[in-house]
Design a protein that fits this description.
heterodimer; A: mainly beta; six-stranded mixed β-sheet; globular; B: four-stranded antiparallel β-sheet; 11 strands
């Protein structure tokens, strides 16, 4: 079974600064996906970034980037130039690479507050 | 990205009644859909995996007779909370897969049982 650990329940960052959210996972799979999802107060789940385990290059989406350390099973999210709209709950998630039945395993989430 | 729509977004019902929540994939066919439950400030808890044309697979501890799931077509899955009680009040979210390593989420449905 897979587990995803987000040990920080809350973080706060000043607007325009950079913040890193940590995530570790445990799996015996060799091929999988890792995700960061954002859940703002509207509670709509929004995909922030996706990483395929077989790719060594860290994924990047505009102000969002990851530090994927496969050997250490670590998958942290860096948010640069934080904006007020980044205030949300963020979930790290794992998915096995095995077709349409693959389910997501979520971490407990972290509440990020961006201060003006 | 693909769009998944949930309806209703908020429902209030009396204790003992049944409530149906729909999850539709609007622009793709979803052979598999997932239903989650989420309490405030907590993570999403997977309740069941819904496969088109077959019985749903429930996670351990989820009552299949309480939470009925029907995936009658490639674009529609429904969750029926039967004989709802106040402890069933929660936020229910569905997601659907195209099968390419990404899930698309509905907007969620808030259930309040009085």
């Amino acid at each position: 079974a897979q587990t995803v650990t987000q040990s920080q329940p809350e973080m706060s960052v000043q607007e325009a600064e950079t913040v890193t959210l940590s995530c570790t996972y445990d799996t015996s799979e060799s091929n999988y996906y890792l995700f960061w999802y954002k859940q703002p107060p509207s509670r709509q789940m929004i995909l922030v970034i996706r990483q395929e385990a077989y790719k060594q290059q860290n994924a990047t989406e505009n102000r969002f980037s990851v530090n994927f350390q496969k050997a250490a099973k670590s998958f942290s999210l860096k948010i640069s130039d934080s904006q007020l709209g980044d205030t949300a709950m963020y979930f790290c998630a794992f998915m096995k690479h095995s077709g349409a039945n693959s389910k997501l395993t979520f971490g407990k989430g972290i509440t990020l507050s961006v201060r003006p | 990205g693909a769009v998944v729509s949930q309806h209703p977004s908020w429902v209030i019902c009396k204790s003992g009644t049944s409530v149906k929540i729909e999850c539709r994939s609007l622009d793709f066919q979803a052979t598999t859909m997932f239903w989650y439950r989420q309490f405030p400030k907590q993570s999403l808890m997977l309740m069941a995996t819904s496969n088109e044309g077959s019985k749903a697979t429930y996670e351990q501890g989820v009552e299949k007779d309480k939470f009925l799931i029907n995936h009658a077509s490639l674009t529609l899955s429904t969750l029926t909370v039967t004989s709802a009680h106040p402890e069933d009040s929660s936020f229910y979210i569905c997601s659907a897969s195209e099968g390419y390593g990404e899930l698309f989420f509905g907007e969620g449905s808030r259930l309040t049982v009085l």
